[in-house]
Amino acid sequence: MIGNRKSTMENLSDRKRPAMHVAIIGTGNIGTDLLIKVLRSPQLDCTAFVGRNLSSAGMMKAASLGVNTSPASINFLIENPNCYDLVFDATSAKSHQVHAPILKKLGKLVVDLTPAKIGLMCVPSVNLTDSLKESNVNMVTCGGQASIPVAYAIGQTQTGVDYIEVVSSIASRSAGPATRQNLDEYIKTTEDGLKEFSGATRTKSILNLNPAEPCIDMQVTIFAKVQSPDIEKLAPVLLQQVETVRKYVPGYEVILGPMVENGRIVVMVRVRGLGDYLPAYAGNLDIINCAAIAMAEEYACVADVKGER
Amino acid sequence: MKSKCQKRTHQDCLRILDGREQELEPLRQSNLVMVGGTGFVGTWIAEMVAVLNDEFQFGIKLSLISRSTKEFAGRCAHLSSRSDIQLVESDVRHLSQFPMDADWVIHAAANPDVRTHASNPLDTASVIVEGTMSVLRTAERLGRLKKLLYLSSGLVCGAQSESANGIAEDAQGAPLPEASFIYPNAKRFAESICSAARAQSRLPVLAARPFSFIGPYQSLDTPWAQTTFLADALRGNAIRVLGDGHVVRSYLYGSDAAYWFLKILTTGESGDVVNVGSPVGVTLQELAKTVAKNFDPTPDVILNTAPRSVGRVSRLVPDIEHAQKQYGLSVFTPLDEAVKLTVQWHQLSNH
Amino acid sequence: MRHNHKIRISDPTLRDGSHAIGHQLSAKQIAAYCQAADQAGVSIVEVGHGNGLGASSLQLGESKTTDSVMLGTAKKNLRSAKLGIHVIPGFATIERDLKPALDLGVDVVRVAVHCSEADLCERHISFCRNQGAEVWGCFMMSHMISPVMLLEQARKIESYGAEGVVFMDSSGHYLPDDVRQRVEMCRDELSIAVGFHGHNNMGLAIANSIAAADAGATLLDGCARGFGAGAGNTQLEVLIAVLERVGYSTGVDLYKILDAADLAEHVLMKEIPVIRSVSVVSGLSGVFSGFLKPVARIAKEFDVDPRDVFFELGRRKIVAGQEDIILEVAKDLATRAAKGAI
After folding, report:
1. What is the ipTM of this complex?
2. Contact criterion met (CB < 8 Å) for A172 and B202
3. I want to staple A31 with a disulfide (CB 3.0 to 4.6 A). Which of A26, A247, B110, C148 is the partner?
4. Residue B39 · residue B74 · CB < 8 Å
């Protein structure tokens, strides 16, 4: 568990507490992977897995796991508002534009995994407290989730952060048509997120797709141009960020740096996925899901503390 | 203790692998999943894997997914009971997960029985088309997948042009869009779907186009020429040839086919299409005579029906230049030998 | 086939050449070369950072001159030649980079992707078409997939409405037969034009370009004096001479292109491109030529053999744009060497 709360396991041993009821809308590969993670979480209970097609692979998987499914998509959530408190939206940006106001009216918490970016950008290791105050948070981008903790550490410890550049390499097979047709949006959102969380004057995000087989894990390099690089100051703060991220993304590790090379700070991280439903090499897809789950678990903790469940 | 039959098929595989096992080296210590794995091809692949594991310590784990696993277990207990072979009962259309983290997948799920094509064309199409989509979508989520081999059909390019000796992979032409041709049309469409999966999801897929096969494990009940002739002869009857006997086909032996498929699977490049079959065409009359001479007394060969229409010969024989040049494949078991081995196997299993 | 077959010449001296000088082209240099190339009669003059529009970055090297100044200067100094740019989706975005470039008067856009990722081009190509620009799809590192797969990707480019597809031999790895096969296949199956962009790591850039032309390519790239990444590009003035000699017409004036090459040598280059040992290795291992400088620098830093770095990059099938991996590979090699030495 992140933040200052007691760990999940510690809390559970104290007393049995009911898990937070969550719904997942969007039954594609992302939504199905989320479902498996929810089922594994002691703090979350999936009470609805909804989409548009009962015979999709995800729906069949959910049904086989005994989860309540519906092809009525958002309408199911409208008609059954009492069975959930939080919704993961794994549909599309366009659909989320429709879902968000509906769910807001219903007073539900929303974790948005689409590129819609209606709510606050959320990177659990960095802005957990602020995110918990919001009822709609979005998970930025995969490159964002992987690089912002590092960019944040740089922003916290270095003076004069002029420029941060993030290069993400992902397996070609982990990038479906949706990613490919929204490359520009991905780049812009990641750049905005980097700026927001690091305070850098200028940011740039680059995405490389590599078709090599066997498929490569997600690899992200963070470059920073700062006035006077201070690795000694950076290292412990970076380590703390990385340790926090690893609590919810076990496959996240620093493989190079922090170091100064050619006058710039360089950190390289690799993200290997859990392989719950998506293949393990798709660390890029997994990190967003893991971050989303972490956020939901934090909401669950807060609700519990408030005695709202 | 192997039965005589099992020894024969084991020997068939060993004969092919002799001096060639290193060609299949990529299979070593890997997981192979076969969808539609309990038919003729699946059974021979299982036999080949058993020999690779027993004789050459390849350590392959094989999963066979099928709707008829019980039937297979009854028929081939020597394979189904092996610890390195796992049977999974599932309809290919509802596949949501592969039984193990597969390095290699062979997708052969389809019903090749022409009677089913005629009586249940929609179901035939559904299994092939929806089944293929399901397999590909599921394969997308495999983390270690090296290659997926789709077993298409030599019929996807429609009728063989009369001028061609053998149909090459780039033959132009397609089956007519009618119910009678639902099987080759569905196979053709499934081949396009594989191509689309490659284009959209970057799945490493290639296709093989099987022509006709012969060998143990082919049910004598099916209404093909080779099985009908064998059935007739084994029953001690005269061999009846429907038609004038001038239809030309070619036949590849089961163990040859298994080796060909595995070689193509492991060394083929994504996007390739390869004919799998014998390039040696024989008329059905010649085939009937070849079957007949394995029996004593030699059964009569009776030709049937109308005299052949002048100038029209139905010929379905593959051009295997690509298989030869790219994969170094050839016919290892000539037809005479193939027929003899098949006859003997049936005779042994009847005892 | 040869006589009466016109070859269109595209000159990326001021773009690919940028790799050779760490992307430090000045407006003055651009103006000078543009004038010379324009007078020589080349069809397209391509200008920009070595990795194209919006690629100035820590990853790939920062430009001395901004994209807008480079393109504005070039536009002013081209009269008949068209102004071209190289654009890689993932580096350049439509809003931030492409739109302003077209507003500046860019005529030809070559949207470049790694050869197996043609669908990344769709939106950029559509945008350019809607703005009325001439747009091509470009396949970088095109040796890395089979001709059949390349054709599949080229079909996508055709479906997006591009004018043609250019095969880039980004690592100088091709043999003439490889080129011929790919160009022929696309000429047979597609209705769009085919172009070829050669690199000289194996000394075959000219031969490969001629093979491309013979197989039906109608657009060829060449850089003055071979100014380009690694061992250099197809040497433009030599290409013109050879094309004319074998019977193709190019519309380029031989003397004037020789003058342009002389100018390039004196005004643009620090040294004339030559095939050095490392370039042979990068060509053989099929690694992006543009990696030469970062590999040299990083190999020195980590005290490893740059040739080993190239072979390892080739083994891992690293694609253009993945310069950050060089660091990881070098570090890895150094660690292994240290362990071995103990």
Report:
1. 0.90
2. yes
3. A26
4. no
